[in-house]
Amino acid sequence: MLAEILQMLRTGADTIFYGDIVVSMAALPGEALREIRDGERGGEAVELCEHALAVKPGHSTARAEELPERAVESRGDASSLAWLGTVRRSQGRYAEASEFYRRALALDPEHLQAWMGVAMLLTLQGNAAAAVPRLRELVAAHPDSVPLRATLGDVHCDLGAYGSAVECYEHVLDGHPEHLGCRLGLARCLSHRPLLALRMRSPRHVLESLEVEEVDPDLLARAAAALLRASPSPLEDPLLLSVLRHALLTDLGVERALTQARRDLCLSPPGDAPELALALTDQCRLNEFAWPVSPEEVARLATAPEWVRAMYGPEGIAPEIVERGRRIPTLTPISGGTSAEVRRLYEANPYPLWRRFSRGAPIDLDQYLRLLTAGEWEPPDFLKRPRLLVAGCGTGRELLSAAWTWHPTAVTGFDLSRTSLAYAQRMAERLDIEVELYQADLLQLDGWERRFDAIVCTGVLHHLDDPLAGWRRLLELLRPGGVMVVGLYSETARHAIVAAQEEVRGMGVPPTPAGIRAARARLGSLPPDHPAAGCAVLRDFYHTSGCRDVLFHVQEHRFTVPRIAAALDELGLTFLAFEADGAVRHLYRTLFGAGTNLAYWEKLEQLYPETFLGMYQFWCRKGDR
Known about the structure:
alpha/beta, Serine Threonine Protein Phosphatase 5, Tetratricopeptide repeat, Rossmann fold, 4 domains, seven-stranded mixed β-sheet, globular
């Protein structure tokens, strides 16, 4: 039975129908343990368990804990020991995992599963570089091993060696296009280094990944733009139609070419709508009709065919969203002043509008935090299935991504904007994720008696009159020992954005669709050495609600690392770790060694001022009392 299940799993199935038997992922570790204990298929059993743990890293460990010693006593072979190392690794018991892997390799120095386990363990402990030389040797000796090459790609990605990671992922996808892990890894790498797409053997994997529902297409937008700029016939390239339909294009040169193509279709329309026009309509809906419109186009639209008019509008909120928003329950009244102004902003421009997020293997929150802290902090047990609050959840992208990834026992979100909450609710229904949503003002939550194990609050506090007042209110909702991820704007990283805000204020344009288009046109025409020109690297620059959020917001505070340190001290919080990509984490380790120290992070940001261009995102912990 095991071999047949493995064959079906390799096709990407989550539930296996074997005759009259239905085998789910939840049953796989137990099945594999029986094979280890009673059968002769140790290697296949380990692969089966790796599949199960990849889908849900912490699952069935309680069952596994009943059997490992008996399994080792009855078998004692390298595959049994390697699997037990993987079980311990998934439980965060790294020292025991290391010992099991060591014993497996003592029996079989070439054991692939044990070496892959060692590589992942070293990565979890912040020392992925130590695994690379041996993994390379093993890949050279076993070039057809898909798990081995994918593991090497993941380790390279964690180290920020994105070019080497892309080579691994591309090699796997050439023969196994269904490998979701490698598609997600490829998208992550290309989001950080889009020009690597030009070094790929073919644009095929970028094109195919844009169509995969579990991959966030926006991660591939800049790579697709680089390929289109290099294409001899970009308007006829199949990649163009795909990226227009799925991803927000974030390249001024490509935008200008497509704006001209739309203008040509408007002023001289053919009899029937070409495929390009339909794709342009999808793209303009994604960017909320942010592209400039000439007076000639405006004049022509009155008598243009319907398919031409669709490329230009309608603007505004869909009636279905407005009606849905009216039914969102109210938890608190909305304060006047800044809260009321912020609510009006997001009612008119819910932010961010999105269609997909990357959906890889879920990971329990406690395991994620072990990974983020390189095993230097042991999370409490309640973080395995936390009660999660997302404060200022907006349109639900972060809320639903957290619900999908961490599998909390309950997910609650609130926001000032009913329109944003309605969008979040609609997306939750499409993804079949259960969430609880409220309209509420953070500053009015003093009477709420709910308590949460973990709170997510990114991009919210810096828009309050007093960020620490809102932070304190959230801490009242966090249980003792609970954790919080906070996102705050960086003073150092936002120099270009501040200059762009000043440029727009000098124009005197209002935050209307026409005013936003005018602001974009002005900023997009600035010379490269202008202080505000750097704002065009932001994704938010390329869609109307994002542009309003970054350029026209009613309130914005910016922080520094010392100011964050002072706030944590004042609030009695313990800093745990920054959220950062592999290249930044590897750079920190190279410069300052293991651990995480806010003074060192300040030095790193001084050396590399755009490190936190999006915002600082960091985890902190409340005291046990």
